[in-house]
Design a protein that fits this description.
511 residues, alpha+beta, Beta-clip-like, 42% helix, globular, SET_dom, SET_dom_sf, SET domain-containing protein
């Protein structure tokens, strides 16, 4: 029985690779075919099941995690194996110097193995039989995120929509010559100019993008019996499964006996299903739009709750906002961003938009507070204690007034936001793209436009006249998921704008 029904670019005999190199064990009714969600997907052709059913099993030896890659690196025994190990270590020392993420280390291992494959040294390491074709698949994976977007367009976006730390991180990687430097290091330092250019900067960037889009969080048992850790892992074949939190009908787990990664159909989720249907898993229970778009290259449009953050405090100018709002927020360690909670229907259309204020006390900047009493020069502040003290001292009415002032400002900002988004879309549409360049960033802009317009429509309909009305635009605490706060973006405080505003005020006073 053949698993692969659609051609996989770069792999001559994909079913041989699945059975003989990956050693995958799969249900007779499971196939890999083209998906309406884009690219390939896993499909199951069958009726209802009376118990959760295993449909795919992959040995942990045929996955790529830091733990497994280290085993592979140390597996060589002869001179070629020593050369391969030394080469990988050189790459790790260069590319993973300093404080780095687990995914960056995994990316480095994969790039190193691709280079070893091209100079015919990969076979000197044990357990790499499946790696060669898997890396070909990654090199032919197309991800619709910003990694191939016009850099001048991304620069324009960065200037127009400041404060998105997730985007800034990706943009920095694209422009800092990271891939160019690594490609040159491999050619000149690691391989000592013996082989010439083995891998290009463009190919390295492609692998970085593809790997980020396919990594899964897989539990692994530690040496302490019963304890598990989470590994960032690439799992061949399982990573063909697409994401849909609303229609999810399968889940992956680990065999506690041998460490195999297994994919199971959820009997309760496919109840009533007949014939062929796509096997859908959840990449993340929390659908943060910035992370999904920048990592996976798509914006989930299924029914459910989505999160998106928009920088606000210190980025929106209004006479009602204190000039030193950024300084206040920084000292309180409160976020300058607004986290919107978005509900979408089955068609992916935005139905409701509210703000999550759980553990967010940024509204205190709108309260009548003498901040110099709390921020005494030369003394170290305890931001949690300051917030706690303020909340205890302020009456309910004072808190409500501050919250209502904030919501009126948010309303003013979001009213202006669609025109700013439309202007960007118009300019992006006129950008001349070089060969291979894209303008995928516009997909995120279009989604933000829908959110802003829906928020404005709801606000206009409610016409809040006081804090009680304004609270209807905020998610009630008992409906908040505490995990929403865990995916908040790292804050970027806009001190540059604050200093500019203060300078303008000084000049105006002088005049």
């Amino acid at each position: 029985m053949s698993l692969i029904k659609s051609n996989i670019k770069g792999v001559d005999d994909s079913n041989y690779w699945v059975k003989s190199q990956v050693g995958a064990k799969f249900h007779d009714n499971l196939t890999v075919e083209k998906s309406s969600l884009g690219g390939l997907g896993l499909f199951y052709d069958g009726n209802e099941i009376d118990q959760d059913t295993e449909i795919l099993r992959i040995s942990s030896d045929c996955t790529l995690s830091i733990h497994q890659c280290m085993k592979i690196m140390n597996s060589g025994v002869d001179d070629k194996g020593t050369f391969a190990k030394t080469f990988i270590q050189k790459c790790l020392d260069f590319y993973c110097n300093g404080k780095v993420t687990e995914s960056r280390i995994l990316i480095c291992y994969c790039i190193s193995m691709e280079v070893l494959n091209r100079i015919e040294k990969l076979d000197s390491l044990k357990g790499t039989g499946f790696v060669r074709n898997y890396l070909k698949i990654l090199l032919n994976t197309r991800v619709s995120n910003v990694d191939c977007d016009s850099l001048s367009l991304l620069e324009y976006y960065k200037e127009e929509f400041k404060g998105n730390s997730l985007f800034d991180s990706v943009y920095k990687q694209l422009i800092n010559g990271d891939c160019e430097e690594f490609a040159k290091f491999i050619e000149v330092e690691a391989l000592e100019n013996v082989y010439g250019e083995v891998i290009s900067a463009e190919e390295i960037q492609h692998l970085v993008t593809a790997i980020r889009s396919r990594i899964l969080e897989i539990p692994r048992e530690t040496e302490s019996e019963g304890d598990f850790t989470i590994d960032i892992t690439l799992v061949p074949i399982l990573d063909f499964a697409n994401h849909d939190n609303d229609k999810v009908n399968a889940y992956f787990d680990v065999d506690r006996v041998n460490g195999d990664i297994i994919l199971k159909l959820d009997k309760d989720k496919i109840k009533g299903s007949k014939g062929k249907h796509e096997v859908l898993i959840s990449y993340s229970r929390i659908e943060d739009m910035n992370r999904f778009f920048l990592n996976y290259g798509f914006i989930p449009r299924s029914k459910g709750i989505k999160l998106i953050e928009i920088p606000f405090w210190g980025y929106y100018k209004d006479k009602e906002i204190p000039l030193n709002v950024t300084e206040i927020l920084y000292k309180l360690q409160e976020t300058p961003n607004l986290q919107f909670v978005v509900k979408t229907d089955e068609e992916g259309d935005v139905q409701d938009v509210k703000i999550n204020m759980l553990d967010d006390y940024s509204f205190l900047t709108m309260a009548n507070v003498q901040w110099d009493k709390y921020f005494i020069e030369g003394e170290e502040e305890d931001e949690e204690e300051i917030v706690s003290t303020l909340m205890e001292k302020m009456s309910v009415d004072e808190i409500n007034v501050a919250m209502f002032k904030m919501m009126k400002l948010v309303n003013k900002y979001i009213k202006e936001y669609p025109s700013k988004l439309k202007n960007f879309l118009a300019i992006a549409d006129e950008y001349e793209l070089n060969l291979g360049e894209t303008r995928n960033i516009v997909e995120m802009i279009k989604f933000e436009e829908q959110i802003a317009e829906k928020f404005n429509a709801i606000y206009e309909k409610k016409k809040p006249q006081d804090a009680k009305d304004a609270f209807d635009m905020i998610v009630p605490p008992d409906e908040c998921d505490e995990n929403w706060t865990k995916v908040r973006m790292y804050p970027i405080y806009n001190f540059e704008q604050e200093l500019l505003d203060q300078q303008i005020k000084i000049e105006q006073m002088t005049l």
